[in-house]
Amino acid sequence: MPMCFARYSRLVPVISGPRAELVLTLTSARRHIGLDHGQADRDLTLRRECRAAHIEKPVLAPLDVGDLVAEALSVAPPPDGMEIIQSGEPGAVIAADRDQIRQALLNLITNAYDSMPGGGVLTVSATRAAGSVHITVTDTGMGMDQETRDSMFTPFFTKKARGIGLGLAVTKRIIEAHGGAITVDSTPSAGSSFTLAVPAAAAMAGARR
Ligand SMILES: Nc1ncnc2c1ncn2[C@@H]1O[C@H](COP(=O)(O)OP(=O)(O)O)[C@@H](O)[C@H]1O
Ligand SMILES: [Mg+2]
Questions:
Q1: Domains identified in the chain and CATH numbers
Q2: Separation of CA 209 and ligand 2 centre (Å)
């Protein structure tokens, strides 16, 4: 049964609080989700996502998006039956915190895999725009209905039986901490496309001057 995000709304500080609060929140999140002690793998996943949800101020450095996408795909290789199309404009270099942006990309890529249980095509592209780079992750999966589109960035909103509902909330926070934006285009039964607009490294150099 899909988890009702309203029940978890008081856990929202998980994505902004200090570490002590995070531990408390983790304990209450575990209780709310109804984990028993035998569910060690699920507990570990929750712990990882909550840790990832504690977003530090990004430490910016120039980062080649092609390298980053290759790295993310090697960490989360495609399941059987999934085709990957990767395209990147040369010179697509962003001003970013490597660990954070890789986490954001991983969240989008794993959601894309989840949306295509019967196989499909994942396209990851990077294009240069004025002052920024657009990284787009597109799947040919199940797409999203209106309720999901309205709630997908709300912490602990998930429609997955074993979902946690932090991936997109964290991704949005990471991108906004970089001064960027996330946009989504999705059609039920056809697929979804998430675009991360992240400031280009050239913009970082300009800001320093
Ligand atoms: N690429 C996608 N295709 C279809 N639905 C998606 C996609 N990405 C996210 N969603 C929807 O948004 C919800 C929240 O995603 P997320 O925050 O990553 O949490 P989780 O993956 O744990 O459910 C998912 O449960 C799913 O319903
Ligand atoms: Mg997810």
A1: 3-53 (no CATH), 61-208 (3.30.565.10)
A2: 38
